[in-house]
Amino acid sequence: QGGTNDGSVVMVHNAAQERRFVLANVSMSSYFGMADSPDGRYVLLSIESPVTLPDIYALPLSGGPAVPVASGPGSEASPGFSPDGRFVAYASNESGRPQVYVVAFPANGGKWQVSQEGGTEPRWSRDGKELFYVDRENWIVSVELGASAAGFAPGATHRLFQFHSIGGDWRYDVSPDGTRFLVAAPPDDATQDPITLVTNWTARLAK
User: Fold this and answer.
1) How far apart are CA 159 and CA 64, in angstroms?
2) Do the Cβ atoms of 45 and 10 come closer than 8 Å?
3) Are 12 and 4 in contact (CB under 8 A)?
4) 133: which strand partners?
5) Per-state percent for the chain, helix, strand, coil, to nearest 5
6) Which of 90, 93, 99, 140 would you call most buried, defined as having the most Cβ atoms within 10 angstroms of its Cβ?
7) Residue 100 in 3-state DSSP?
8) d(CA 43, CA 37)
9) What's the rounded Cα separation, in Å, for the pair 3 and 29?
10) What is the pLDDT of residues 6-42, one digit of tens each?
11) Exposed, middle or buried: residue 92 (CB in 10 Å: 0-12, 13-18, 19+)?
12) What is the pTM of this model?
């Protein structure tokens, strides 16, 4: 979902209600990528301003100013709350290559880089024990999550399967039990342009 506004107010359609949120000190040109918090108190938005690339904010559903979640020199997108609401996963190209990161929520300085060789579109498992993302070769990758003093500890990674999809920022989702994936893929009967292999092409130059 997305939209534009006059720089101070964003209208969000929630069920049958239209809610108005004030973005204090945020000069906004567009917003996209909504995700609700588990307790229903916040909505995450990736907000782009006329002078900066998209940053991530949490908008309180009770009203009030937006809360900064993730910002930097790059473009932050695809935010999502962990099942317990304590962390937010997102993708950013702040290092020059899209990678998946996790930050504590509310912000307390805790930040972890989850992917190492490129990653986008993070998704949490419902039990909070795994984090999934898409790597640069379109593999779905699973990251085991453990416990630490900070409450977040990325562990071993596993490539699950490779896919070719259609769509934009939401190309796949995970079933509640974490055993199946819903993927926006092109139909099997989609027509493709044929590939022609030309041999002995130098002989044709003489004709």
Assistant:
1) 41
2) yes
3) no
4) 141
5) 0, 45, 55
6) 90
7) strand
8) 6
9) 9
10) 444 444 444 444 445 545 444 444 555 578 899 999 9
11) buried
12) 0.77
